[in-house]
């Protein structure tokens, strides 16, 4: 595989442990420049395979058309409004190479939309996430729930979209 995009990359944990072992090049996008600066150090020698460090919120970020085999979006969709998420997913679809995938891995509430005042985000239930994916014109090609979590915390679901 050629190129992946890590959305909401932070210091690059997903890039280091998942994406760089699978892809020749990985681009990182995060709203916090300080995290991207730390990522260069955290990734160490492997940082030379990072194509771009983009400092941007996903609501404003426009990924390059036709560049990515995988766009990985983990624990960040709750920071986007419904409309911003739909618009971003539409831009992601244009950024995929043939047979590319958008992967969303995130917390999912048991029912409705649950606000988190601490980090100004929301947690949506699975049906709401699915409806936003459909609204963006994408389809879910695979979906799974991470198991063995205590009932008191949110479920974690991964959706592969095309």
From TrEMBL:
Q: Which family does it belong to?
A: Belongs to the methyltransferase superfamily. NTM1 family.
Q: Out of the domains of life, which is the source? A: Eukaryota
Q: Which PANTHER family match?
A: AD-003 - RELATED, N-TERMINAL XAA-PRO-LYS N-METHYLTRANSFERASE 1
A GO cellular component annotation here is: cytoplasm
Q: Which InterPro entries match?
A: MeTrfase_NTM1 (IPR008576), SAM-dependent_MTases_sf (IPR029063)
Coiled coil located at which positions?
none
Indicate whether Nucleus appears among the record's keywords.
yes
Q: According to the UniProt entry, what is the EC number of this protein?
A: 2.1.1.244
How is this protein named in the record?
A: protein N-terminal methyltransferase
> What is the reaction catalyzed?
N-terminal L-seryl-L-prolyl-L-lysyl-[protein] + 3 S-adenosyl-L-methionine = N-terminal N,N,N-trimethyl-L-seryl-L-prolyl-L-lysyl-[protein] + 3 S-adenosyl-L-homocysteine + 3 H(+); N-terminal L-alanyl-L-prolyl-L-lysyl-[protein] + 3 S-adenosyl-L-methionine = N-terminal N,N,N-trimethyl-L-alanyl-L-prolyl-L-lysyl-[protein] + 3 S-adenosyl-L-homocysteine + 3 H(+); N-terminal L-prolyl-L-prolyl-L-lysyl-[protein] + 2 S-adenosyl-L-methionine = N-terminal N,N-dimethyl-L-prolyl-L-prolyl-L-lysyl-[protein] + 2 S-adenosyl-L-homocysteine + 2 H(+)
Question: Which GO MF terms are attached to this record?
Answer: N-terminal protein N-methyltransferase activity
**Localization in the cell:** Nucleus
Q: Name one GO biological process term.
A: methylation
Instruction: Keywords in alphabetical order, please.
Output: Methyltransferase, Nucleus, S-adenosyl-L-methionine, Transferase
* Location (main, coarse): nucleus
